[in-house]
Amino acid sequence: MAYRQPSRIFAGLSAAAILQLEYSWRLHDDDTVFIASSTGGNSRCHANIRRIFMRHMPVVRVAHSPCPGGLVISVAPEHALSAATPDPGTEIVRITSPARTLVDCGLRYPFAQAMPMFNSALRKGLVTLDEVMETCDGLQANHGPVLRLLHYANPLCENGGESWCYATILDLGFAVPQLQHVFVDPDAPWKRYRVDFVWHTQDGRIIVLEYDGTGKYVDPKMTGRRGVQSVVHDEREREDALRRAKVTTIIRTTFDEVAQRSPLMHKLLDADVPMTGMHPFYERRTDIRGREY
């Protein structure tokens, strides 16, 4: 579409896809392509094309350059890339700025679905919290959902699955966990184990939650081409080391449990994970590097 109409500016989920932000591909189930428009309202101009109206259109150009194993993505203001001659094989697409893209997606999709986009954009250095806030200030719309995403966004989530699980935990009303905490095995101080989520409770308990994707056991890139038995053995050794490091409870959850929500909620309740409403202390905020302040 960009090749046929170079002047077209992609927006919303389409811009997020071009930026290769993390999110569930189920959001593309209706095959809608989003484009920015300075005239008319938010409407469909074709069965699969939806316009997003914006009076002031912040535009950047995204260059996709082929490299061994994938693509290199470069984002620059429109004038910067338009003046340069692209390398052979490089594709350039015009989209709304990363900040405006996040705002549009944050207003359109549920909290748990939008969180991976925000976290990955921050982790990749495509945007700052202030830039997103500035974009919100320029809109005449209720941007409360975006403010909530900004409040909890944390680039320490390593992938879209973790971000989705993290946001679901918050949606269910549980306390904000600490992310990517490292434990040291007291019997072997040279061994360190990083966990996905951890709560240090006021009564001295340490609760760990691990998000396990099926790829952890079957994807050669994640298993190092080891067999399932070997991976399971390493997991048991890891759990033993965490318990030696004073972890009192270890919870494991899966994609299906997070999607259904109820199984995850019951596991967290059974482990007595603090609820936000009962423990305001746990409402913590982080900066762009994931540090608390």
Automatic annotation (TrEMBL):
It comes from the Bacteria. This is CTP synthase. It comes from Bifidobacterium aerophilum.
